[in-house]
Every structure is written in structure tokens, then in C-alpha cells.
Design goal:
The protein is an all-beta fold and 181 residues long. It has a single domain (2-175), classed as Immunoglobulin-like (Sandwich). Helices cover 0% and strands 43% of the residues. It has no helices and twelve strands. Strands 1, 2, 3, 4, 5, 6, 7, 8, 9, 10, 11 and 12 form a twelve-stranded antiparallel β-sheet that branches. It is globular and about 45 Å long.
Length: 181
Amino acid sequence: MRATLKPHPDTPAPAGARIEAEALRPTPGSLQLRYRLIMNGPAVRMPPPAAFERADDLWRHTCFEAFIRGDGQAYCEINLSPSGQWATYWFDDYRQGMRAAACEPSALDAAAPDGSFDLTAEIDLRRLPAPFDGPLSLGLSAVIEDESGGKTYWALAHAPGKPDFHHPDAFALDLPFVEPA
């Protein structure tokens, strides 16, 4: 399913900026994520290329994120950096019980075609602490850092108050169960 992310009201987007996101579930145990950043104004500060490996604090710079919840309150946070680094975390409930998740992207590709930036990732959901084999609720989001170090916070939906991608209101995209082929 394709959607457009919205900037948080407290961090308005630069003129001409837009982020499109797409989540696909090709099999019950996998999730494909695609993000496209279109900037027709100030330059985005991109992290420098790095090895494809786990790294913490990616959200402190330009980063694309997905929050995945199945049945219940537990959820997974996935951080995908344009650098090629990634991180996955498991939460037992809203901001509770955080720990590293064994789930990792099997692929992470970044490209900068014609004035935009594309990032795609494939996630193996079977490695998460709880099975995500039923319908999923997703929160798709991004942190975009400009050249001056200012940040805008983008999501499908924003909860009242400061930016909070973990808030239950942010899980605004429902993906149905996929029958095994």
C-alpha cells in the first residue's frame, strides 16, 4: 500500500519537500518497504556511506523508519539509514521493554535518481520474538536532517504533542494477512 508521509506540525517541511512510502507483504513472513524523498529546496544532509551493519542512534540523522505491530501491544521498530546501516528493536508495549531484535533487512538499497532519493528494504518477519503471521498495523515515518542540522519528522499520522512515532496513533496503515503460496 502506498501513502504520503506528512511533516509534524511543529517541524514544517521545506517548500517542495515530499515523502512517499510503500509497504508490501509479498509473503506472510516478509515485508518490503520503499521510501522516496523528493526535495526541491534545501539540501538534505545524508549520512556518509557505511558498511551494511547494525548501528544504534540512526534516527539522530536522516533515517527512514517502520513500526510494525501484529495482534497485541508488542511491536518492532526498524531504522533504515541511507548510509546502508540499519537497526531493529523490539518493544513489549508502548516504549516498554526495548531490546535489540534479531530481525534484519535481507536487502537495503539506496539510490538518488533525478532529484529524489529512494530507499528500499526487505524484512524477514519470521525472526521477530513474536509471530507476525496475521494482519499488521504499520507506522511509516522518517527523520529528515537539512544541511544546517535542523530536522523534520514525517509520519503517516501524528499523535497530539511532540513527534512520537511510537504512539499507537502513528500505526495508521493496516496490511492484511497474506495467504502462503
